[in-house]
Every structure is written in C-alpha cells, then in structure tokens.
C-alpha cells in the first residue's frame, strides 16, 4: 500500500508535527506500507520529500523531518482524482491512503480533510465536520453542554465584541463579576496552549485577551479550576462502528495524568522545557473515577461524530472532586512518548499496532462512504 504521510503545515504547531510524523515514519511496517513523505511548508504548499530525507529520519531515533521546498517536487491535487489525485511534475504518486500527522489550524480543523474528501482519498482521523467543530473550543463546549456533559463555565469574546467598546467593557465586567479571578484565557481555534494565559487581576486579563486575539478572532475565557489534568485516548468510528472490528468500535483507553511544574500546562511546558511536566500513566485515580473518565471520553467523542482518534482532556477539581471535560484533540501529539499512544500502550495496544488500527479504520470509513448515494 502506498501511504502518504503529511507533516508540517501553516499552524503554530508546525515543528511539533515534524516530530510526530518522524516517529510514525519509523514505526510503519515497511512490508505493509510504502511510505510517501509529503511536507507542508509554512506557506501552505505541499512538497514531495526525498528518499534520502526519509531514510535519514528512519535511521535516527532522535531525528525530525526537515521540509525540502524543491519547486520541482511541488505536489498538485486533482479533485476527484482518487489514487491519481496527488501529482508531482505531471506524474501521479498513486496514493492508496493518507496519514496526516499535522496539528492546528489549516490542518486539524477540517481544511485538510475537506481537500482530501474532494480528492476522494481515504485518510486517518476525523471527517470534515468533526474536525472543524472540535478545533473551535467554544462550539465544542456548546455541543457537549447541550448533551448534558460537564464543562468548565466560560464566556466567549469575539472580534466584534472588541470592535464595540461598550459591548466589550460590559462583557469584561460581567466575566469578572461572575467568575472573579484567576481566569484562563485562550484562543478558540489554536492548539498546544498557544496564546493561552492565566490572569490573576484586571490588568493581566486585559493583556491576556490582547495576546489571545493575536492568534484568533474568537477567545474563550474560563473560570480557573484548581484542578488535576487527566487525559484519555479514544479510537473508533462513532457513526459506523462495528463492535466486531477492533478498529471501528469506539474505545477509551487507560487514562493518564499531566503533572506540570509550570503554573499551568502551557506551550513552554509542553514543548520547550524538558522538565515542564511529568506524565503519569495510569493516572493516580480510583477505579470508579477511571470508569467515569472513560465513559465520558467515549460520550464526548461520540456526540461530535468523531472517527479515527482523539485525546479527550479532563479537569478533576482538587477541592470538590468534580470532573469536567476540558478539550478534545483530534490529531494529538503522536511521538512514541506522547500521551496519546502511551495511554493506548498502557491498555495493551502497542504503537505499531495503533498505527495499523488507525489506517484500517480509515479504509473502512472510506469504503462505507463509497456505498452511499450522491445522486439519483
């Protein structure tokens, strides 16, 4: 099978993607998959990567992809092209499936998925709608809340609010009156805690809003919870799942816990500081709490019509014990030591088997879609 692996992208998580994709490339079964590496440059253009670059990454456990922007290897996409959809210098790459190991805007938010749908290529992960909704933290919370799932109290600011001074000032006053301090402020459509801040007073709140609005036109403001951060991996297809197929049945795995050394689990703690956080798998929670977390993870995943994979993140209030669903990541970090695969591994699903499961699910979803009518 010719498997295209996509990495890079226009988002702030470009470098994270290079590391995740490199790990996947080193763990794909060469007897089963012929890997076709495609790098997405920061300007959004796709480039076929050289065999030498692939061999370099596969031969060094610490290496990460470097995107070679060779104009002669620019990838063009033909809508409806199916296996012939990806073309370089007039020649089809003959792609059977796509594994997009990409994060953030322009990649994880339905943009890439829509492009691959138009090309009629099977791909790993959530479809267009689920990818788009889950990238928007506010819309995700709206759906969870409407389905009776517990979320942290929040308000949403938009650019329109900022443009109307009276409306903006009134909203700021309402948030402070209702929640008090501290507050968490973050862009609605950015990952890896980019642009996120904790505000302990009015001045910091104003600065945090300014920072978040540099990354998005919608900003989420949440009541700060004195919480433990617990995560849970989920795989499967919420719409067409077949319990007889391990790759399509929706399943939650062993929860893990983030133990940050920073004030909160921000971008620096995740990616820049090697001692920014400890990862504890399984999480130090009792059986009852574990059961609740896994059940909520499956529900959170299912009501959003997710498929492929996601990591569902939770808060457990240290004072009350209340459990809240915080976020969902539909293409989580995917290095061999990332939380998502490690939680699967703790439940008995190894890294290489996880990759195979995700590809099998993608192919099943694609075949199921082909059976549907599109016209009379």
Provide structural commentary:
With 376 residues, the chain is an alpha+beta fold. It has twelve helices and 17 strands. Strands 12, 13, 14, 15, 16 and 17 form a six-stranded antiparallel beta sheet that branches. The chain has a four-stranded mixed beta sheet with strand order 3-2-1-7. A four-stranded antiparallel beta sheet has the order 8-11-9-10. The longest helix has 20 residues, at 351-370. It is globular, with a radius of gyration of 21 Å.
The beta-strand count equals 17
The residue-averaged pLDDT reads: 93
Profile the largest sheet: 6 strands, antiparallel
Helix content: 25-40%
Indicate the multimeric state: single chain
Q: What is the N-to-C succession of helices and strands?
A: EHEEHEEEEHHHEHHEEHEEEEHEHEEHH
Unreliable runs? 266-273
Output the structural class: alpha+beta
Query: Which geometry do the CA atoms define?
Result: globular
Gyration radius from CA atoms, angstroms: 21 Å
Tell me the β content: 15-25%
Query: Total number of helical segments?
Result: 12
Separation of the first and last Cα atoms: 33 Å
Which key phrases capture this entry?
4-stranded mixed β-sheet, alpha+beta, 6-stranded antiparallel β-sheet, 376 residues
